[in-house]
Each structure stands twice: as structure tokens, then as C-alpha cells.
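Researcher: Please translate sequence to C-alpha cells.
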Amino acid sequence: MRIARWADGADIGEGFVDGATVVPFPDGLRVAEVLAQGLASARALFARRDSAAARSLADVRLLAPLVPASIRDFVAFEEHVEGVSASVDGKSEVVPEWHEAPTFYFTNPHTVRATGDVVAIPETQRLDVELELAAVIGGVPGSDGENLDAAAAAAHIFGYTVMNDWSARDLQSREMKVRLGPAKGKDFAMTLGPWIVTADELEPFVDADGFLAVRAELFVNGELIGHDLVSNMGWPFPELVMYAARNSVVVPGDVLGSGTVGNGGCLGELWGRRGGLDPRPLEPGDEVRMVIEGVGEIVNVVGERVPAPAVPRARERSRARYRAESTDAAAVAAGR
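Model: Translation complete:
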């Protein structure tokens, strides 16, 4: 099954993609509600779909397939870390700590874009993209999503969608020198789409080690820039979900990105490996297309740079430990 949201004129539709049509969920349900009910309930809804209410997919505009509850983005591909660390941090390395646990960061769920959108960008000279597969969390009866083991975590994966983690590498490089982030280098845009493909649809691609062996490709202006198998990630998706829920909780609508695939899943990896900006950073008007086997494709055009208020430098401060009293306050304290 494929789950989608779409715009039909001024109306917003939410439901199934059925062949070349879109069909609203029965009972007026929304994607968030279907995710909360879980995969088994979604199958029952699909069996009840009203084909008479179908619209041609070509006649609607796809929106992001969900409004995420949160977005965690992992860094699960060692090859990506090797290359991009050189361009962002100035040194190509995979630190020993990377192997110990599947590290992630939280990013902005409020700037999610859809396939087909023109994506406005900040004032960056090193605009980049990141080709990823993302898992979408659904509800499981009797589970609160907390402290899951790998088997329970797998049951919480409702489906998958294509993710583009847009990145301003110059902003990211500066802020990560402060040993925190990424933040402003990432939070301006994230593309998800074109729909959510339910987890059972990808089961034929699961290899003997439990990894999803689907092909992922990145194209810029029609040129193939990089390609990889998602099965090259260091941990399978259930273990990413397990780690996200470790001493914490995952809830329906959470999105967990795999991290950027290797072998050119982003320009930054290639910049690090080649020692220069080859291919060049993205510019307004460039088209980015990402394709993941069994899931679909997302296409965006880079929009114009959006000026923002200037950022003031930190002020030099005295490091005083007590407030300086005013003359009047001192006089009152002295009884005058």
C-alpha cells in the first residue's frame, strides 16, 4: 500500500495511492490517525476503499505524505562519514565512537517540503542535498513505544518514504566547530515523499542480514551523481528504531532517516574525496531528483536565496558573579 496526502484545488485529500489514482481514506480519516491505528488497520481500510471516490493521480498535487511528530536523522553509512567529514570538518575520518551506536540528530518538522516544491534556501555558498530512506513509525496495539527491543521496534515501522536532508555545508561547518549541531545548516528544508510505502511492500528486498537491499540514486540536472544500496548502512532499520526508543519513546508519525547513502549520496562526500567543489554546489534553478527502488522518487528545484537578519557577534562580558547596585539602591540600603 501507498499512503499519501494531496492538494486538489483548495481541498486537502488524505488516503491511498491505488494504481494511477488517489482514493480518500474511509470515514474521513487522516494520515496521522491511520498511522496511530497501525498497519493491520490500514490494510482493513484499504479493503474498504471507495473506488468511486478516486481521482486521477495526475490531477492532484502531492503534498508531504505526513506531518511528522518529530524527525530524527541518523548517520548510518560509514562511506558517507568518510567523505563528508573531510569537507565539513577538514579531516576524513570515522571516529571509533561511530561504530558503538547509531548516532542521530533531531531536525525541524516544520519546514518539510513535498516533491515538486521549489525549495527556498538560506544565504549559503555550499548548498547540498542528502539522499536517504526514512522509516515512518506507526502504532502497535499494547505498546507505548518505549525501550523497545529490535523485534518490537520492527513492528513499529509502518512504512518508508524518500528523504532529502537539504544542507548548507558552510553554515554546518561553522556551527559544528562549537561541538553542537547541525542546526541552521540543516533546519531550513527537508523533503519527504512522494508517499509512504508500507513496510510489507519492501519485505522482498530484505537480505539475509535483515538489511533493505534497495537501490538509491541521486540525479542533479538529469546527471547521475551517486548511487548505493541502502543495505550498506551499519545498522538495519529496526535497530535504529530500537536506539531511538532507548530510555525514550517513539510515537506514530515519528520519522527516522537512515542518514545519507554512500558513493555520492550527497555532493559533500564527493567534495571531501576529491579535495574540491566537484561537482559544484547547488544554485537556484538546479533540479534535484532522488529515486529509491520500491519506494518512489522526489523532485525539487532549488529556489532563490532568502536574506535573513544579521547575526550579532557574542558580547564580551565581565563574568561578574553579583549584580552591580545602582547609586540609588545603595543609598536606600544604607538608610539614606
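Researcher: Any highlights?
Model: The longest helix spans residues 78-89.
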